Amino acid sequence: MANFRLRDDAEKWFSNVDKGSKFDLYYYCAIVGLLNNKRTEPVGVNSTDMVSYFINDYKASQNLIIGLLIIAELKKAGINITEKAAVRKEIQSLVSPQGGTGLTDRGVQLLNYYASGGFEHIRDSRSTKPDSREEFMLNFIDLVDQAAKELSF
User: Fold this and answer.
1) Angstrom distance (rounded) from CA 25 to CA 33
2) Taking the complete model, does pTM exceed 0.90, yes or no?
3) Which contacts of 133-136 are long-range, i.e. CB under 8 A and separated by 24 or more positions?
């Protein structure tokens, strides 16, 4: 069973942000990565295993995150939503009723790549790291708003 993983450099970059939990940071990065279709394999960067399930604070967002992952992967593969067999095959490669994530190992790995890409997008959108949670949240909201305006299905 695959674990959610947070890049060590991401945790260090967010050091001034009162983060609550590591999963909060992971969620912010994953959402930005998914909405901006930014996926990077963190080569040469250490990552830390967190958990192999959605923590209670994010259980309500689990289906949203899985849905965003499916949409991002369909877009990346160039699969139109009307191509039922191809969509079904992609969903089966990502989603699993087994385990605490609702995702296959491939799905968790790809979500980790989106969290990595999201971190890079957040970091590259700023000249310095954030000094507080409030400062970061304003930046996060702007990044999500910008991405939402550019989304097309």
Assistant:
1) 12
2) yes
3) 133/17, 133/18, 133/19, 136/14, 136/17, 136/28
